[in-house]
Design brief:
Elements: E1 2-3, E2 8-16, E3 20-27, E4 33-40, E5 43-50, E6 53-58, E7 68-75, E8 79-84, E9 88-93, E10 105-109, E11 127-134, E12 137-138, E13 156-157, E14 160-175, E15 181-189, E16 194-202, E17 205-212, E18 215-221, E19 226-231, E20 243-250, E21 253-258, E22 261-266, E23 278-282, E24 302-309, E25 312-313, E26 322-327, E27 331-332
Antiparallel strand pairs: 1-10, 2-7, 2-11, 3-4, 3-10, 4-5, 5-6, 7-8, 8-9, 11-12, 13-27, 14-23, 14-24, 14-26, 15-20, 15-24, 16-17, 16-23, 17-18, 18-19, 20-21, 21-22, 24-25
Protein name: Laminin G domain-containing protein
Domain Laminin G: 1-151, 158-331
Pfam families: Laminin_G_2
Length: 334
């Protein structure tokens, strides 16, 4: 968001348990002229700086309680004002020399890239924002999103959330397609179509499990020839309930289990000479990995939990190889 106004009147709803972090910043990143709203020890601080001079006002109460609070601030020719929940107000005086009409800068919500100002947070607060307004006009669009996730409800269940913007996690870096394996997990989808798991960079050695129109299909090639099998669950996968899914290979038989439904097919004897370890992805096929032979490229939308590979649990909330818009914080409870 870019702005250039003679009087600033901004407001935003914030929910956080953070005691420290940047919420709003506008100005130059060297600190000559800026307006910043941030948290310090749970209290909001509005800082205004220009040409080496700084003015700060701070809330008396702490607002890092995990509840929604409306924070509004305005800057006019003579005053700065900070208002909380429409009731509690803090004010400060501006000298007549303050160049309130001369700042033309981008607005940052959260952390600011390459910020070089002492005594204010360089990192973002952790929490949620909504209803951001400039001049009482809602700001619905942004120029750039740098890894910001959608807000989740207060009530969360264990799991990993995948969103419309698309994202994936690397479950394992050394997955072998042509040996016996079992991959099991629980999903609660919000779309009938999407990639669940994928491994492999060419059509002669790959494994993919995907949903298409509510039907689950496992397809692959263990080096000896392609296979494909599908299961149509008795219950809709988008019914708000968790559904168990497993794909496995044992003695050249490929099994696909969805809740209590099972299908299987025989695969040709794998060629061990073609074996090499591959990353195992969940959520989508990475953009830089071309898979034109797959019938879909849709991202998974929903929640993942209880992931196991060869009966070994994967600690999803400890994963670090995450790409795109994925939240490890939990899944919204239905």
């Amino acid at each position: 968001v870019r702005t250039s106004t003679a009087k600033w009147d901004l407001s935003v709803d914030v929910r956080t348990s953070s005691s420290r972090g940047m919420v709003f910043f506008m100005g130059d990143q060297m600190g000559n002229r800026y307006v910043a709203l941030y948290l310090s020890k749970g209290r909001y601080v509005l800082a205004v700086a220009y040409d080496g001079k700084k003015i700060k006002i701070k809330s008396k109460a702490k607002y890092s309680d995990g509840q929604w609070h409306m924070v509004a601030f305005s800057i006019s020719e003579k005053k700065i004002r900070l208002v909380f929940d429409g009731l509690k107000t803090r004010e400060g005086n501006l000298p007549s020399s303050y160049p309130y009409s001369q700042i033309n800068a981008s607005i940052y919500l959260g952390a600011v890239p390459s910020l070089n100002i002492q005594n204010i947070p360089k990192k973002s607060f952790v929490g949620c924002l909504r209803n951001f307004q400039v001049g009482r006009k809602h700001m619905y669009t942004y120029q750039k999103n740098n890894g910001v996730l959608p807000c989740l409800d207060n009530i969360l269940e264990n799991g990993v959330s995948f969103f419309n913007e698309g994202g994936y996690i690397v479950i394992e870096n050394t997955f072998l397609i042509n040996v016996e394996y079992r991959i099991a997990f629980s999903i609660r989808p919000r779309s009938f179509t999407g990639i669940l798991i994928h491994a492999g960079s060419n059509q002669q050695n790959y494994l993919t499990l995907y949903m298409e129109g509510g039907m689950l299909t496992a397809s692959g090639n263990n080096g000896a020839g392609e296979f494909s099998l599908s299961v149509t669950p008795q219950q809709s996968l988008c019914d708000g309930q968790w559904h168990s899914v497993a794909v496995s290979q044992k003695q050249n038989i490929i099994y696909l289990d969805v809740d209590t439904n099972r299908n299987y097919t025989a695969a040709l004897s794998p060629k061990l000479s073609t074996s090499h370890a591959q990353p195992l992805y969940f959520g989508r096929v990475p953009v830089n990995l071309e898979t034109p032979w797959l019938p879909i490229q849709d991202v998974f939308l929903g929640c993942l939990n209880n992931m196991k590979i060869n009966d070994k649990s994967i600690l999803l909330n400890k994963m670090s190889n995450i790409h795109g818009v994925v939240s490890l914080e939990g899944c919204p409870a239905y």
